[in-house]
Design brief:
Structural class: alpha+beta
Number of helices: 12
Distance between the termini: 58 Å
Length: 632
C-alpha cells in the first residue's frame, strides 16, 4: 500500500479505498500463486531432507557390519563375576577353563603417624646442690658427697658414684623432647655419664644415655646440654648422673648443678601447618630413586605436593612418576604406582624427616605400624597350573583373553586351591554383537522404507516422485539380492534369516508392500555359530560384493555432500525457491507502483468532481439570484 494520508470519496462519495483493494487483490493473484509454488517446493525440499537424514542413519548402521570383529568376535563368561570377569578378542580359542584365585595383586602403601610438634617447654628439675634438704627432696645420692657450702656434689670414695632424681610426673601421651643441662668440673681421668628412663604407666624403660663425657683437664666448671626425642607415652621420668674417677689419686669428679626441661609433643591437626622439618629423603621403587627436599615451613600438604611432582627429563627431584602421595586424616599416605612385589617402596632418610613423621626408624627401615598394604603379586591357578602376575588385569595367560581378578576363591586361606574353590570361565563365539548389528540395520532399513512409502504414497509430500520410487526399489534389491562370488550354504540374505516378509513355520514368506524385511534371529544365530566367516562374507568381503559393501556405495551416491543425489535435489529446489523469491520481490515492486498509480487516478477523479461541484454550485447561485431580481 502506498504511503501518505489518503481520504476516500470526499467528492464522489464512492468508497474508492474498497475499489483499490479489490483491484489490487486481482493484481496479486499471480503473486499468490508464486508463493503457493514456493511453499510446495519447500515441502518437497523438507521431505527430501528427512529422507537424507534417514538414509544417513541407515548408512551409519553399516560400519560395524564391515568389521570382521563383529562376526568373528569371542566372549568370555565367568561363573562368578564377583571374583572374576574376562573379555576375549577374536584370536581367543573356544574352550572352558577352571580358575582359582589365591591372592590379588596390590600396590605397596604406607602411612605416617599423625605429625607432632613440640609444645611449651616446662622446667621439670633444677638443683644447685647448696641445700641438702632440697637435694634429698628431688634426688637420691649414691657414693656421692654433697657440699652445701660450695653447692656441689663429688665422689665420696672409690671410683664411681651417682645421683638419681626422684620420679618426675610428665603425663605426655605422645612423648616429647627432654633437655638436660649440667655443670661439671673438667679434670683429667674423670668421666660423666648422663642417663634417663621413662614410665609409660605400666613399666619403666631401660636407662638410656643422654651423654657420655670425659673431663678436658682444665679443672674449671663447664656447662653441657643434652637432648633426647622421646616417643610414646611418658607418664613419669627419672634422670641419673654417674660420676667416675679415682679418689685415691685425688681425681674427684664434681658436679655443680643440673637442670632439666621437657617439651611435650602435640599432634598437628592442621594439614597446612608448618611442621618444622627440614632436610632430604629419597624414595626408591623398582630401581628408580627419587629425591625430596623439605624445609621447616613445609606442611603435610606441601610435602605431599613435593612428592607428587613429576621430575623432568634427566631429573630426580619429585617422585610423582613412581608413587602417589595423599594426606588422609592428618597422615601422609604413600602408594606405589607399580603394583606387585616389584613395586615395593624403600626409603633413605638421612635427615630424619620420615622418621619424625613416623614412617621409618632411625635406619630408614619402614616401621611395621606404618605398613597399610604390603606389595604383593596376584597368585592364581588355571587348570591346576599356579601362576603369579604383578597386576590383577592379566593378558598373557590365556591367548586372546583378558582376565580381571576381583576377589579370592581360596576360602580356607591355605594358599592352595581345591576343586571346590575353582570357578568356570567359558570362551566362545559372541553372536550377540553381530545379531545386534544386523537387527539395527534391519530396523533402520524398515524405517526408511516406511517413510518412503508414506512420502511417495497418496497424499504424500512426494507423491508419484519417480526418483523416490527408484530409491526404494534399489534399496529393496540391494537388501535381498544374492551375493555374487560366494559358495556354500550361506550366499544370500535369506539364507541367514533376512527375508522380505514374516517367516512362517515352514519357511514360506509373506510379502510386504512397503518393501520392509524381517529378521529371523534364531536362523541368524545358527548361521553365526556354524560359520561366522561365511555370514560376514554376505555383508562384506574382499570382492566388495557384500550387502553392506554395495549398500554403502549406493547410499554414498545418494547422501554424499556436494554431488550426492539428494543434496543435489535439495540444492535444485532451493535454487528454484530463490528464483521465486526474486520474482516475488519484483512483482511486489510492480504491485506497489500499480497501487500508487490507482490512488493518483482516483485522486485526480475526486479533484475533477470537486471542481465540477464547485462550478455547479456557483451557477445555481447565479440562477437563484437572477430569479429574485426579476420579481422586483
Amino acid at each position: 500500500m502506498a504511503s501518505g494520508i489518503y481520504f476516500s470519496g470526499l467528492a464522489s462519495g464512492i468508497d474508492t479505498e474498497s475499489i483499490i483493494t479489490q483491484l489490487m487483490n486481482l493484481e496479486r493473484v499471480p503473486l499468490t500463486k508464486l508463493q503457493q509454488r514456493k511453499n510446495q517446493y519447500n515441502v518437497e525440499k523438507n521431505a527430501w531432507h528427512d529422507i537424507y537424514t534417514r538414509l544417513s542413519n541407515l548408512q551409519s548402521k553399516l560400519a560395524s557390519l564391515k568389521l570382521s570383529s563383529t562376526f568373528t568376535g569371542m566372549k568370555a563368561t565367568s561363573s562368578n563375576t564377583a571374583v572374576l570377569t574376562a573379555t576375549a578378542s577374536s584370536s581367543a580359542v573356544a574352550g572352558t577353563y577352571r580358575l582359582g584365585i589365591v591372592q590379588l595383586a596390590q600396590a605397596h602403601k604406607v602411612a605416617s603417624q599423625q605429625p607432632l610438634v613440640y609444645g611449651t617447654e616446662t622446667q621439670i628439675l633444677t638443683d644447685t646442690f647448696n641445700d641438702a634438704t632440697y637435694t634429698a627432696g628431688v634426688a637420691t645420692l649414691s657414693n656421692l658427697t654433697q657440699d652445701t657450702t660450695n653447692g656441689i656434689i663429688r665422689l665420696s670414695s672409690g671410683t664411681s658414684g651417682s645421683i638419681t632424681s626422684n620420679a618426675i610426673s610428665i603425663n605426655a601421651a605422645n612423648g616429647g623432647r627432654l633437655t638436660l643441662t649440667v655443670n661439671q668440673q673438667e679434670r683429667f681421668n674423670t668421666n660423666y655419664v648422663y642417663q634417663y628412663r621413662t614410665f609409660d604407666g605400666t613399666t619403666w624403660s631401660d636407662w638410656k644415655t643422654l651423654g657420655n663425657l670425659n673431663g678436658d683437664g682444665s679443672g674449671v666448671y663447664k656447662s653441657h646440654t643434652f637432648t633426647a626425642e622421646i616417643n610414646g607415652s611418658v607418664q613419669q621420668l627419672e634422670l641419673k648422673a654417674t660420676l667416675n674417677g679415682d679418689v685415691s689419686n685425688s681425681v674427684i669428679p664434681m658436679l655443680a648443678d643440673w637442670t632439666a626441661t621437657f617439651q611435650p609433643a602435640v599432634p598437628v591437626t592442621s594439614d597446612t601447618a608448618a611442621l618444622g622439618l627440614s632436610g632430604s629423603f629419597s624414595i626408591t621403587v623398582g630401581g628408580q630413586t627419587r629425591n625430596i627436599t623439605v624445609s621447616a615451613s613445609d606442611s603435610l600438604q606441601s610435602i605431599a605436593a613435593l612428592i607428587n611432582t613429576v621430575p623432568g627429563s634427566g631429573q630426580t627431584s619429585g617422585a610423582g612418576d613412581i608413587v602417589t602421595a595423599a594426606v588422609i586424616d592428618h597422615r601422609l599416605v604413600l602408594t606405589s604406582k607399580t603394583s606387585g612385589a616389584a613395586g615395593a617402596m624403600s626409603f633413605t632418610d638421612s635427615n630424619g624427616v620420615l622418621n619424625s613423621l613416623g614412617l621409618v626408624d632411625g635406619s630408614g627401615k619402614i616401621l611395621s605400624g606404618a605398613v597399610v598394604q604390603d606389595a604383593r603379586d596376584a597368585v592364581f591357578t588355571v587348570d591346576g597350573l599356579t601362576i603369579s602376575r604383578p597386576t590383577n588385569t592379566i593378558t598373557d595367560v590365556i591367548t586372546g583373553v583378558t582376565l580381571n581378578l576381583l576377589g579370592v576363591t581360596d576360602a580356607d586361606g591355605n594358599k592352595a586351591i581345591s576343586d571346590a574353590e575353582t570357578i568356570n570361565l567359558d570362551v566362545g563365539h559372541d553372536t550377540q554383537k553381530a545379531i545386534g548389528a544386523v537387527k539395527e540395520l534391519v530396523d533402520q532399513y524398515n524405517s526408511v522404507m516406511d517413510f518412503i512409502s508414506t512420502k511417495g504414497g497418496k497424499d504424500g509430500d512426494l507423491q508419484g516422485d519417480p526418483t523416490l520410487a527408484r530409491i526404494g526399489s534399489s534399496l529393496w534389491r540391494l537388501m535381498t539380492d544374492t551375493v555374487s562370488g560366494l559358495t556354500g550354504n550361506y550366499r544370500t540374505p535369506w539364507s541367514i534369516g533376512i527375508s522380505t516378509g514374516d517367516v512362517a513355520g515352514s519357511g514360506a514368506l509373506t510379502f510386504d508392500r512397503s518393501g520392509k524385511i524381517t529378521l529371523d534371529t534364531d536362523k541368524l544365530t545358527a548361521a553365526l555359530q556354524a560359520d561366522p566367516q561365511a555370514v560376514m562374507a554376505i555383508f562384506t568381503n574382499d570382492g566388495k560384493t557384500g550387502l553392506a559393501d554395495r549398500l554403502d556405495t549406493y547410499l554414498t551416491s545418494l547422501v554424499r555432500s556436494g554431488d550426492g543425489l539428494i543434496p543435489s535435489r535439495e540444492k535444485s529446489l532451493q535454487d528454484i525457491m530463490d528464483d521465486i523469491d526474486d520474482q516475488i520481490s519484483r512483482m511486489e515492486d510492480r504491485l506497489a507502483m500499480k497501487e500508487e498509480q490507482l490512488r493518483r487516478q482516483f485522486t485526480a477523479m475526486e479533484q475533477a468532481l470537486a471542481a465540477l461541484q464547485s462550478q455547479g454550485n456557483w451557477l445555481a447561485g447565479q440562477i437563484a439570484g437572477l430569479g429574485a431580481y426579476q420579481k422586483k
